[in-house]
């Protein structure tokens, strides 16, 4: 059973990175398809569309940050060896990573859909692009930020990792 805690902690870090990243990939793909369709007729809208295409990518960065924090707290990159976690601490790390993993996955997919709608709307009413396109997409982003904050608080302030 030695190493089980570290293995579980690495699974938690991987879940944060992979699930949030997968959501970002799906969201960017959804928004990108809409942008590509609009750009065939209106190439001058590239800059505005680019913003709405990349917005769902932020959740992937949040998941990466959470995973990186776990690895740092395990001292994976430092001198003196990796901290040995109990199986219970490993389970706690998984629990700490779940908020950004789940909110990152779901919010990125839905943000991509909102951005796709904003891109299509901006094709006909460019003056509404920021108000209706970007602002609505940012409202979805709030929940990923909240997931990241809970994950960060749990990792950094939760007392999971040994001193």
Explain this structure:
With 163 residues, the protein is mostly helical. The protein has one domain (4-157): Up-down Bundle (Four Helix Bundle (Hemerythrin (Met), subunit A)). The chain has five helices and no strands. Helix 1 (4-41) runs parallel beside helix 4. The longest helix has 38 residues, at 4-41. The relative contact order is 0.21.
Output the number of helix runs. Answer: 5
Q: How is the quaternary structure best described?
A: single chain
Into which percentage range does the β-strand content fall?
A: under 5%
Low-confidence parts = none
CATH fold naming: Four Helix Bundle (Hemerythrin (Met), subunit A)
For this structure, what is the CATH class? Mainly Alpha
Could you spell the SSE succession in H and E letters? HHHHH
Give the overall shape, derived from the CA principal axes: elongated
Number of domains: 1
Organism: Anaerobaca lacustris
Keywords: Membrane, Transmembrane, Transmembrane helix
InterPro entries: ATPase_proteolipid_c-like_dom, F/V-ATP_Csub_sf
Protein name: V-type ATP synthase subunit K
